[in-house]
């Protein structure tokens, strides 16, 4: 068994591992959060209302999730922060969607946090990342993960003005982060796994490549001390 695990671990070191993985329609972020909606590669429209739904219970696997999902907990596996930004290097825009602890503190007792997101009419057409910035602890180790979810936004309003509210400095990519090797909730038994196409720094889409699911899971479990 030791030799077998060593071979799989070596495979992980040789190949790049994709930490953003879609399983049965859910996007497992590089941290504890699981995005239920919107779906990756969705086409949304400026001026429309859209639902963002995030499972903060690890599909029911996070111990004491009602406490662990609220910032300020001292549990060994917990959320410390979760913020969302709409980012595009194609349109040079970084727009706040949700800042501060409010998203995690709302809907007490619910495993899924919902955000009614009205896309401003000033957002121009183009390729975007709905980007999740998460601070968390897993088994006592602190992590900071950045997970992009690709979207296409269309704006048919020719007179739309330039955005001014909630605009942030557009930082270069990739940004510094310290994520775990994969979501601790990832389980590949009988699940359909696909890889979304993520916009690059110049706005062009490119598919992220991953090593075998088996190697991903074993490496993640080793790194997180779960084996």
Characteristics:
signal; alpha+beta; disordered C terminus; six-stranded antiparallel sheet; single chain; 227 residues; 13 strands; five-stranded mixed sheet; Immunoglobulin-like
Please give a structural write-up.
The chain is α+β, with helices and mostly antiparallel strands and 227 residues long. The chain has a single domain (20-185, 201-223), classed as Immunoglobulins (Immunoglobulin-like). It is built from four helices and 13 strands. The strands form three sheets. Strands 8-5-3-2-1-11 form a six-stranded antiparallel sheet, with no helix packed on it. A five-stranded mixed sheet has the order 4-10-9-6-7. A hairpin with a 2-residue loop joins strand 1 (21-23) and strand 2 (26-28). It is globular. Residues 1-19 and 197-227 have low confidence and may be disordered. Keywords: Signal. Residues 1-19 form the signal peptide. Residues 156-189 are annotated as: Disordered.
**Widest sheet, order of strands:** 8-5-3-2-1-11
Spatial shape? globular
Distance between the termini: 12 Å
Q: Compute the number of helices.
A: 4
The computed structural class is alpha+beta
Chain-averaged pLDDT: 79
Order of helices and strands: HEEEEEHEEHEEEEEEH
Proportion of helical residues = 10-25%
As for the CATH topology, it is Immunoglobulin-like
Number of E-type strands: 13
The CATH architecture assignment turns out to be Sandwich
The CATH homologous superfamily is named Immunoglobulins
Number of domains: 1
Topology:
Blueprint: H1 2-14, E1 21-23, E2 26-28, E3 34-37, E4 42-45, E5 49-55, H2 65-68, E6 78-88, E7 93-98, H3 102-105, E8 112-118, E9 126-138, E10 141-154, E11 193-194, E12 197-199, E13 205-207, H4 213-223
Parallel strand pairs: 4-10
Antiparallel strand pairs: 1-2, 1-11, 2-3, 3-5, 5-8, 6-7, 6-9, 9-10, 12-13
């Amino acid at each position: 068994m030791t030799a077998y695990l060593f071979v799989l671990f070596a495979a992980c070191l040789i190949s790049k591992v994709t930490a953003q993985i879609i399983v049965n329609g859910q996007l497992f972020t590089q941290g504890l959060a699981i995005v239920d909606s919107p779906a990756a590669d969705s086409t949304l429209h400026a001026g429309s209302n859209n639902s963002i739904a995030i499972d903060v219970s690890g599909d029911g696997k996070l111990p004491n999730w009602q406490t662990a999902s609220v910032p300020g907990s001292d549990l060994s596996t917990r959320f410390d922060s979760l913020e969302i930004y709409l980012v595009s290097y194609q349109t040079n825009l970084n727009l706040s969607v949700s800042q501060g602890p409010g998203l995690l503190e709302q809907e007490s007792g619910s495993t899924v946090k919902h955000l009614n997101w009205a896309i401003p009419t000033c957002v121009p057409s183009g390729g975007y990342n709905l980007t999740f910035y998460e601070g968390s602890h897993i088994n006592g180790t602190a992590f900071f993960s950045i997970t992009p979810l690709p979207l296409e936004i269309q704006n048919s309003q020719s007179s739309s003005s330039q955005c001014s509210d909630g605009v942030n400095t557009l930082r270069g990519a990739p940004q510094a982060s310290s994520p775990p090797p994969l979501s601790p909730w990832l389980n590949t038994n009988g699940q359909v796994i696909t890889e979304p196409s993520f916009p690059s720094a110049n706005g062009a889409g490119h598919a992220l490549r991953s090593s075998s699911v088996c190697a991903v899971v074993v490496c993640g479990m080793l790194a997180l001390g779960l084996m």
